[in-house]
Amino acid sequence: MRRIYLFWVVIAILALPACFGQAVVSVKAGLIHYVEGDVSLDGKAVAPKFGQFPEVKANGILKTASGRAEILLSPGVFLRVGEDSSFKMISTKLEDVRLELLTGSVLVECAELNEDTAVTFVRQDSTISLKKNGLYRLESDPAQLLVYDGRAEITAAGQTLLAAKGRRVALDGELVATKFDTKLTDSLYRWSNRRAGYMALANVSSAKAQWDRGFRTGISDWYWNPYLGMVTFIPGRGTIYSPFGYSYYSPRVVYYAVYAPPPSMNTGGRGFGGSTYNPQLGYNVSGGRSYDGGSVAASSGPSAAPAPAASPRGGEASSGRGGEGGGRNQ
Q1: Is 195 within the bounds of a domain?
Q2: Quick one: 277 and 157 in the same domain?
Q3: Residue 251 CA neighbour count, 13 Å, CB half
């Protein structure tokens, strides 16, 4: 019995890298990533299982009573639904994600909103299109949009209005943008902030796993993190900053920022090992330290010999180690 148990433990461990490498969603929006409390989808209670996520399909309606829900839209865009709220999913296409807020409040975190994706809310004869990375809140009673960060385009009754950070737009009657204090928050905002923090935490190990697997294509996506039991966002390139202030790293960035080995210390006159102590000057001379292949002269007086120039590492300068091409994500 013990041997059988150990066998399955080994199989599970070996399977983890494969789990890390699986994109969760790539062609449509609407995965219910996380719920707490009373949440229903098309009249049925939502109870996600480990590693499994129900979908809000086109024309599906999600409702919360004394609960909350987090929905994955396009990669890098999170919809968080407050208590006593509901919305209808009109389109799940990444190039044209469309939703209708029916009741209550929702908060949308756009960490990455690129030209290939669009997120639009509809309400009666009006539309609200999110145009930039940012943080947006929609409320049904009174019907209004609050832009904590970013820029949104509102169209209604033949009028078009652009609303930037710190602007509130009433969605009934004439479109007018007024100021509001972005520092005033509530429980939905603070809960969304915590969820963003968890997502960013899961990003680090997942991005490193993608680097180890050789994914280098520069495509942003959602990835399953089996260690933390949640999905995280991994940008294709560079570092993406959440409107809440957290960081989402690409595989390349997280490797060099967190996991890369420290610079080597060369010897033989080029590193600290080749330095000699001068008792008259009180410090080492003729030494240098090498950081990533480059030699930097150590502190020395007039009698110190200059450190020899460093030559590029074999092929790395031209090959662009860890470059943005080839494989999958960066």
Answers
A1: yes
A2: no
A3: 30
Domain that holds residue 287: 262-330
197 token code pair: 């923090």
Two structure tokens written together for 256: 């060099």
Last residue of a domain, one of 242, 260, 278: 260
Residue 80 parent element (H or E):
strand 77-81
Task: Say if residue 323 is in the same domain as residue 240.
Answer: no
pTM comes to 0.73
Digits of tens for pLDDT over the chain (330 positions)?
434 433 333 333 334 444 444 555 456 899 999 999 999 999 999 987 777 889 999 999 999 999 999 999 999 999 999 999 999 999 999 999 999 999 999 999 999 998 888 999 998 888 999 999 999 999 999 999 999 999 999 998 888 999 999 999 999 888 999 999 999 999 999 999 999 999 999 999 999 999 998 877 788 999 999 889 899 999 999 999 999 999 999 999 999 888 887 766 554 444 444 455 555 555 555 444 433 333 333 333 333 333 333 333 333 333 333 333 333 334
What token pair was written down for 327? 């494989």
Domain boundary among 244, 260, 276: 260
User: Parallel, antiparallel, or unpaired: how do β-strands 276-278 and 247-249 relate?
Assistant: unpaired
